[in-house]
Amino acid sequence: MRRAVLILCVFLLLASFPAGALALAPSWRSPAPSDITALSLSADGSYILTGGERVCLYSGDGTPLWQEWTAELVACSADGSRIACVDGQSLFLLTREGTAIWREEMPSPAVCLAFPGRIVVADRFGKVYFYDADGSLRATADTRGDPGDDGAIRSDIRAISSCGEYTAVISTRGLFYYRDAGRKVWTHDEMTDGGTAVAVSGPGKDIVAGSDAGIRFLDNKGNLVWSQKLRRPVTALAISGDGSRVVVGSQDNTVRCFDREGEEVWVFETDGWIRDVAVSGDGSRVLAGSMDRQAYLLDGTGGLIGTCNLDGWVDHVALSADGTAGIAASLREVIGIPMETPTPVETPAPMETPAPMETPAPVETPGETPTIEEIPVPAEEPVSGWGPGPYALILGLFACGAVFGVGYLRRERSAPAREELVIASPTPPEEEETIEPHPWKPALEQGDLRGAARALSGQMITLIRERTGVRIVTTADALTAYPGQKEALAGFFEDADRLAYARAEPEMEEVLALEVEFFRLAGEMTPLR
């Protein structure tokens, strides 16, 4: 009975809030004909582009215009009149109507693409190519360093960002900044703490770089202005066109906003890792995509305007420069985000209560019966037929629920440990074989290979925490806790991240090999506490 009362109180509490008060209905929804691998929005929000087995172009209101070609990487020009695409080693340019203008074969497959005016492409071996809109290769930059440098022959480019004539590149070797057609301005080779994202402001005078350790803000001369450490790796990064706001998403499920002095302006927490973020030119609108299948629209102070639900992880988001158009995409769906704050529904005015009828005077009767004086009712205090109102009723129910709930919890805490008395038994239980928990097994059985890889990574961190007694927050903490297995653990976590988050879908054999590696390391790591 007590539990029923408590459940009823919680239900009344939830019912007292309007359902879906912050849920926004998408302006439009469009299912994708194939997996979406990239998303691009013209600067004015009039054209939307998605990449995959089918390249799709939409008008700003979500109307499909065409679907042709195949390209994993796509980007449209500021006005949407030209579309750059990369399919493996093929780089080609299309008109807005989908007609091919030119095609070039690159020396190796591309991993990053930007199209701010000049087409900038990075390949898997650390080279960056600068093309003019007519297909002319203007320059090639190599982030691997001089061939004679020891250990400087590998550079995995993670992200590029271009704005006008400026381009920033972040790789496993560091941070690189170029001007015009590939002229290197400066390099920071020491920034090798797992670079993950980079962004350049509108004028090209501010550069922000994200990594496994945090973020750095630099000017266009390469001077470090400020840096901030974060608990978990940076997964998404954006900077407003005027450089006044830096928006960061990370694996700790938060979106953080910093000003150009490095002060944290606000923090917003979601229920999943942040996959992508976008910010308007003046920082007044922020759009974030999360692994909890929600796209979050925030204002310039971090206040939640509303959320839109998608059919899967929100991998890509984009905002127009003026913040009046926004889009989000999951693996198989793209939606339009309503950008205006919902108008609150006006509460209807209470109905007027009819004026009280006058009571007829009593009929006089012979005798000495005293006359009953009429007590007038003040006209300025009419009695409402609704009493205290529905909101007061809800508040009253909530208050009653809170009282019952607090009383129930106090009685539960003060009562003897009934469960312990039931479990305790004078007869020793039969010995049973201890089975180690395998939280990745359900994901494997369901065919969720990415989920299994994430579960294996999480279980390894849990195992290290249990065997060392050390507080483990990041993978760097895990490597520090077991220095003797640092290289092997680093390889394990790198493989797990690749299987969980790479563009290519993992194979069952790869996940099973990761499972074998987990058991091998678990057998070699002896408890340290």
Overview of this structure, please?
By secondary structure, this protein is an alpha+beta fold. It is built from eight helices and 32 strands. It has helices at residues 2-15, 390-414, 418-423, 441-445, 449-468, 475-481, 486-501, 508-524; strands at 28-31, 38-41, 47-51, 55-59, 64-68, 73-76, 82-87, 90-95, 100-105, 110-114, 119-123, 127-131, 137-142, 157-163, 166-171, 174-179, 183-188, 195-200, 206-211, 214-219, 224-229, 234-239, 245-250, 254-259, 264-269, 274-279, 285-290, 294-299, 304-309, 316-319, 326-329, 333-337. The strands form eight sheets. The chain has a four-stranded antiparallel sheet, with no helix packed on it.
SSE topology:
Layout: H1 2-15, E1 28-31, E2 38-41, E3 47-51, E4 55-59, E5 64-68, E6 73-76, E7 82-87, E8 90-95, E9 100-105, E10 110-114, E11 119-123, E12 127-131, E13 137-142, E14 157-163, E15 166-171, E16 174-179, E17 183-188, E18 195-200, E19 206-211, E20 214-219, E21 224-229, E22 234-239, E23 245-250, E24 254-259, E25 264-269, E26 274-279, E27 285-290, E28 294-299, E29 304-309, E30 316-319, E31 326-329, E32 333-337, H2 390-414, H3 418-423, H4 441-445, H5 449-468, H6 475-481, H7 486-501, H8 508-524
Antiparallel strand pairs: 1-32, 2-3, 3-4, 4-5, 6-7, 7-8, 8-9, 10-11, 11-12, 12-13, 14-15, 15-16, 16-17, 18-19, 19-20, 20-21, 22-23, 23-24, 24-25, 26-27, 27-28, 28-29, 30-31, 31-32
